[in-house]
Amino acid sequence: MTMTRPQSPPVAADGVGASARRPDAMSKVRGDFAYSSDLWHDEMVWGATVRSPHPHARIVSVDVSAALALPGVHAALTAADVPGVNRYGLETRDQPVLAEDVVRYIGEPVAVVAAGTPELARRAAGLVRVEYAELPAVTDPERALDSPGVHEGGNLVRHLRIRRGTPATADVVVTGEYEVGMQDQAFLGPESCLAVPAGQGVDLYCSTQWLHVDQDQLAECLALPKEDVRLTLSGVGGAFGGREDLSVQAHACLLALRLDRPVKMSYGREESFAGHVHRHPARMRYEHGATRDGRLLYVKADILLDGGAYASTSAAVTGNAGCFAIGPYEVPAVEVDCRAVYTNNPPAGAMRGFGAVQVCFGHESQMDKLAAALGLDPVELRLRNTVSTGSVMATGQRVEGPAPVAELLRRVAGKPVPPPAGDDPRLLPGGTSNSTRAGQLVRGVGYGLSVKNICKSAGYDDYGTARVRLFAHDGETVAEVHTAAAEVGQGLVTVQAQIARTELAAARVTILPADTAVGDAGTSSASRQTWISGGAVRAACLAVRAQVLERAAVRLGEPAADLVYGGDTVTAPSGRSIALAELLATGDVDETAVFRHRATEALDPETGQGDAHVAYAFAAHRAIVDVDPELGSVRVVEIACAQDVGKAINPAAVEGQMHGGIAQGLGLAVMEEIRLRDGRILNPSFTDYLIPTTMDMPPTVLDILELPRPDSPYGLTGVGEPPLLSAPAAIAAAIRDAVGAAAGALDRIPMTPEAVATAVLEHPM
């Protein structure tokens, strides 16, 4: 890994810029870290969910009598037992807590039961009798555009139109149709929570990505004041967007409040596939026009996203997919239509990359096709068209911050190429099955460039809250940081501690559990938490430091502005000083701060123009693959990734994010897909839903650029999503490069062995 950064002061021990160790690292390595599935209460009972077996049906009746007659069963609830609004949803309250009249996808919750053991609860759920009258199911998004059926108000969730400039006559025009399958977040810890009745309300311990938005929705469903629904984050076993929507939370709370005793709910893997949203499948049609020397003149794109049965984040994903449909390129004329539709498939929602992943496969496939039509090297074509600082994006917004896209591409393109595979079967596409020989292989190289927004967009009031308390204990200064920001594995607890150490130089820093007792921190998504919650922690620390200096000014008799804050003392220009512990002996210093980034604006509904995004993040990938053309098997030999992070708050964590993003991108490129038939998930297990293992991961070559932004804390840029975005596109491009004549038939990811072998068979190399 290489890292480029401008000259800066030395990095404080475990402060901002250091690769500080995660406080939960050792317990996770040892296996004794407490995840949400480990929650326990001596008086608890277990909840289980009754789910629809049909993609679309009217509920005629629900009979829970047989379940209640089973000894050890304590409750069985239906939609009639929801005390408040029987609807929830991140952006649109359209999803029932329990279906009351119609089910719209296979797996939709219809009833919940509680019993003394999880096995008994599942048995009782099987005894609930639901009579359905089946309705026609709409499972094809193209059909959903033109037919009624899923929702009474129509099947269109959102249509984003982007229009800028007038397409000129092009010397070369290329068109293409592309498709991206449904990907699962594949987090290792299934949904779990523990609901405990307390006072007039409920205490909920859960794994989530946004405590306060859960609180808002639950309070409405439970008909309780928000302050009576208290949430505490429990150990989260991965998220990647799949925990933004409610799953077990409302059901456990309903049962706990009905029984006035603690209720635990925990999904198995198959139920987890039904219980959370997935990445939107996409169908895309593109047309690119360019001059003979490779200058883009116009791009037209028509993008269709399958949103599944309920809205979730489909409207926002549509916004992202449309905004970034042309990629990080300067294009004078743009015509984009991006739609998301309801179908009777499982709901789609947030997943790492949030719409930009799908369109990246589309626009990068087109750039390769255009390069071939022009007889240009794919790298050279991209270099002639990349955006830079000051460029205008498809939405008319000017790129104000660093935009080193060309530099990122040059860096990955300039890396040495690994030598050809030898006879070691572990390095061949067939692996140790010995199905491939080195002489059968063809090698390919592919590139991908990507762009995505950082933080929330389009006028959203995006902010974070942090409370910081500084106090003395046993002669040491201790900084206590409290936010509601969800640690979902990304290392936020480490970052918050690093900021407190940097700003307060405290001997010890304690990060309190995230809960709703402190103000909203927003969601752990959109690559925003280090910027927003990190900014709030920094602001609160600075407020604490100011208060300490005011106290010292009184004691030292000198202006606070002249005093120097140190880790142990406050010192005046005269040389007089006072110990921090002495200042704190008179009482703690406690400050709460709210941090906001600059304002954005909504896109014009007719033209899609507007200053909608806080910032842009860019990344470049180069993939090298070996392909057995007869079997269609692929081995990714190496992936190089270059990314501008603004400021690496924790370089080791940045590197980890890049490795993780590349792994998810590799999975989408060659193996990961939820397979559906008539709305039913055919592979709801990690036996049949394949994710990359350590044996599938290639060596990665990472290049981290640090080009500080002027408008963010420490100059940072969010890092979580960019390393994923263009990895699938680069791998797909490399596979096409390897198989030559068959490349045109490979227009869908994942590119499975069957798809590759079929393409080669139909278009011999």
From TrEMBL:
It holds the Pfam family MoCoBD_1. This is Xanthine dehydrogenase subunit D. Residues 1-22, 414-436 are annotated as: Disordered. Residues 30-136 form the Aldehyde oxidase/xanthine dehydrogenase a/b hammerhead domain. It comes from the Bacteria. PANTHER family: XANTHINE DEHYDROGENASE, XANTHINE DEHYDROGENASE SUBUNIT D-RELATED. Gene3D superfamilies: Aldehyde oxidase/xanthine dehydrogenase, a/b hammerhead, Aldehyde oxidase/xanthine dehydrogenase, molybdopterin binding domain. Transmembrane segments: none annotated. It comes from Nonomuraea rosea.
